[in-house]
């Protein structure tokens, strides 16, 4: 099929390349010329495992072209809109200006029979509104809402092998035809047996925010248990293992620690609360406010714990922070718990050095006042306190004996419950973590 993808961020760029790898002819469009140039040269503009290999495979195929000119979507049959919906400045609501602009512009290039597909995470009701924009500007074209569930760090695999595919379609023949068109786009994952759910627009929009709200709630639930373990003298890791054996609960997303960040979970639960309020159903999701507060308290607790271990002498203390990205295998620092803790400690006067294998430059542009290095040994040298904030594999696998030789004091705070506590203690370290006595 001939496919266009508008918006080439973490979602759109991977979607465009993945669709090309499935055999479709894809044109990707973004306003950011540097991003487009990077993709044109077959280089990912961000760190995402496996994505450079996918781009390299496509380089000679001619099936993926990229452009800054939105007019190049003309002639495609299916148009995916993958632009961002960040949190609005000064409110909890999603900022829909990029979605609105993308739709207004794409509509001008549609032909009758085209299918335009929203993938961005939007407040419920947006698709119905945009369907009117499509109907008015491009009679005979159909809007589908097709939320995306990929995780950063696993984006290529999640796109090629999704665990479910959801279409929100209008009733009647136009919707039925749109389902057939999207089935042809996703023929490969559907042939693999991927479940496909065909719903109305509001359900499809709600599926996405419900999924992210559930995941955020699961993380904050275990972090609330961590708070209890801290005051009662329990061990949240053992607690998570024990409740996780119950198949109804499950062990995934029960890793207690610094909590969730990134460009999705935090802003999605806030936008959901804002939208529910507008619909007069704010009470139904008021608990998400508590989920958000539990999450933010973990960052505060981490800073308090650092001060405690330093005996209150934060000012001037050399602190090595391992991790800046919001999670491992990503260079994304949007609402990163790690970077937040780094800024708070630096504001409190600590002599902070932040290490990250991939996220140094994105972190530097968000928090230029901090000192950064890609080299973990440089960060560790002379540290009075080491904080593990993002559990990159190379940090989880550090040898506590060797690290003990280069630091000034053997004190470690495990913000992700990711280190082998017994091994660190055996090597003479004072080990503290969130949720474990
Ligand atoms: C999340 C969802 O998992 C995806 O399904 C969704 O498509 C995506 O948002 C989106 O809306 O685009 P992502 O933001 O890439 O994906 O990251 P997650 O893997 O969900 O992790 C989010 C945060 O939770 C990270 O900061 C991570 O460190 C934290 N986390 C995760 C925990 O603190 N504990 C856990 O047990 C799991």
Layout of SSEs?
Layout: E1 2-6, H1 10-21, E2 25-29, H2 33-40, H3 51-58, E3 64-67, E4 78-81, H4 97-107, E5 115-118, H5 126-137, E6 142-145, H6 155-160, E7 165-168, H7 173-185, H8 187-191, E8 196-199, H9 201-232, H10 236-244, H11 265-278, H12 287-309, E9 318-322, H13 337-347, E10 351-355, H14 360-366, E11 371-373, H15 376-380, E12 385-388, H16 393-396, H17 400-406, E13 411-414, H18 421-426, E14 430-433
Parallel strand pairs: 1-2, 1-4, 2-3, 4-5, 5-6, 7-8, 9-10, 9-12, 10-11, 12-13, 13-14
Bound molecules: uridine-5'-diphosphate-glucuronic acid.
Quickly list its features.
437 residues, alpha/beta, Rossmann fold, 2 domains, six-stranded parallel beta sheet, binds uridine-5'-diphosphate-glucuronic acid
What features would you describe in this structure?
The structure is a single chain. It is built from 18 helices and 14 strands. The protein has helices at 10-21, 33-40, 51-58, 97-107, 126-137, 155-160, 173-185, 187-191, 201-232, 236-244, 265-278, 287-309, 337-347, 360-366, 376-380, 393-396, 400-406, 421-426, and strands spanning 2-6, 25-29, 64-67, 78-81, 115-118, 142-145, 165-168, 196-199, 318-322, 351-355, 371-373, 385-388, 411-414, 430-433. Helices cover 44% and strands 14% of the residues. 49% of the residues are buried. The strands form 3 sheets. The protein has a 6-stranded parallel beta sheet with strand order 3-2-1-4-5-6, sandwiched between helices. The chain has a 6-stranded parallel beta sheet with strand order 11-10-9-12-13-14. A two-stranded parallel ribbon has the order 7-8. The chain is of the alpha/beta class and 437 residues long. It folds into 2 domains: 2-199, NAD(P)-binding Rossmann-like Domain (Rossmann fold), CATH 3.40.50.720; 200-437, NAD(P)-binding Rossmann-like Domain (Rossmann fold). It binds uridine-5'-diphosphate-glucuronic acid (UGA).
């Amino acid at each position: 099929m001939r496919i266009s993808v508008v918006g080439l961020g973490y979602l759109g760029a991977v979607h465009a390349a993945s669709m090309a790898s499935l055999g479709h002819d894809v044109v990707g469009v973004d306003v950011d010329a540097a991003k487009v140039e990077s993709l044109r040269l077959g280089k990912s503009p961000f760190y995402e495992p496996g994505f450079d290999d996918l781009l390299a495979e496509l380089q000679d195929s001619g099936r993926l072209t990229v452009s800054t000119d939105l007019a190049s979507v003309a002639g495609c049959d299916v148009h995916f809109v993958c632009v961002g919906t960040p949190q609005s400045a000064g409110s909890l609501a999603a900022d829909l200006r990029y979605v609105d602009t993308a739709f207004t512009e794409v509509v001008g290039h549609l032909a009758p029979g085209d299918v335009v597909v929203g993938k961005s995470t939007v407040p419920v009701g947006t698709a119905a509104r945009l369907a009117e924009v499509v109907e008015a500007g491009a009679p005979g074209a159909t809007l589908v809402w097709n939320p995306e569930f990929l995780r950063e760090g696993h984006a290529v695999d999640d796109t090629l092998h999704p665990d479910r595919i959801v279409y929100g379609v209008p009733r009647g023949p136009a919707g039925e035809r749109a389902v057939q068109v999207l089935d042809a786009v996703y023929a490969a994952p559907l042939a693999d047996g991927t479940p496909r759910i065909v719903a109305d627009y509001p359900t499809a929009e709600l599926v996405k925010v419900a999924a992210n709200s559930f995941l955020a709630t699961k993380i904050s639930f275990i972090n609330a248990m961590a708070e209890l373990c801290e005051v009662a003298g329990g061990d949240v890791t053992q607690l998570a293992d024990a409740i996780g054996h119950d198949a109804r609960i499950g062990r995934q997303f029960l890793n207690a620690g610094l909590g969730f960040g990134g460009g999705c979970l935090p802003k999605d639960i806030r936008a959901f609360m804002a939208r529910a309020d507008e619909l007069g159903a704010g009470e139904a999701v008021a608990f998400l406010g508590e989920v958000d507060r539990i999450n933010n308290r973990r960052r505060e607790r981490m800073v308090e714990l650092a001060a405690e271990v330093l005996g209150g002498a934060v000012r001037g203390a050399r602190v090595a922070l391992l991790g800046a990205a919001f999670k491992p295998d990503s260079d994304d620092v949007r609402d990163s718990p790690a970077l937040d803790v780094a800024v708070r400690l630096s504001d409190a006067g600590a002599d902070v050095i932040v290490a990250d294998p991939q996220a140094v430059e994105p972190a530097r542009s968000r928090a230029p006042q901090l000192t950064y290095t890609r080299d973990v040994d440089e960060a560790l040298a002379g540290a009075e306190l080491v904080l593990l904030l993002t559990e990159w594999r190379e940090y989880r696998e550090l040898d506590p004996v060797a690290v003990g030789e280069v630091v000034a004091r053997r004190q470690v705070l495990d913000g992700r419950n990711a280190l082998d506590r017994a091994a660190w203690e055996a090597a003479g370290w004072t080990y503290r973590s969130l949720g474990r006595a």
